[in-house]
Prior knowledge:
GO terms for molecular function: 2 iron, 2 sulfur cluster binding; metal ion binding; monooxygenase activity; nitrite reductase [NAD(P)H] activity; oxidoreductase activity, acting on paired donors, with incorporation or reduction of molecular oxygen. By secondary structure, the chain is an all-beta fold. It contains no helices and nine strands.
Amino acid sequence: MGAEQETLLYVGTLDLFMKQIGRVVEWNGEQIAIFRDSGDNLYALENKNPHPKGGPLAEGIVSGHYLYDPLYDWKIDLKTGLVQAPDTGQVKVYSVKIEDGNVWIGA
């Protein structure tokens, strides 16, 4: 038995993703926020805040590999989706692949 093949969605070229600003794409009825840090690292998370009141994450502020949510002052690790202490929660994370300047996200 082999590993399952990951389904990839083409979301554009790397230059479409501005540094430290989120961009939303839709896939299978879900909104996915894609963030580029100050380097060329991309992160993809479900565009849904795990806070009980919810809200979008795409308007968050990126610093390093963390997203700072302006609505609730939460800090979220872009690599793992984990909300940092003292708050708790987790955001669904999608894999990102960059190949020849093209960006793909996987589920």
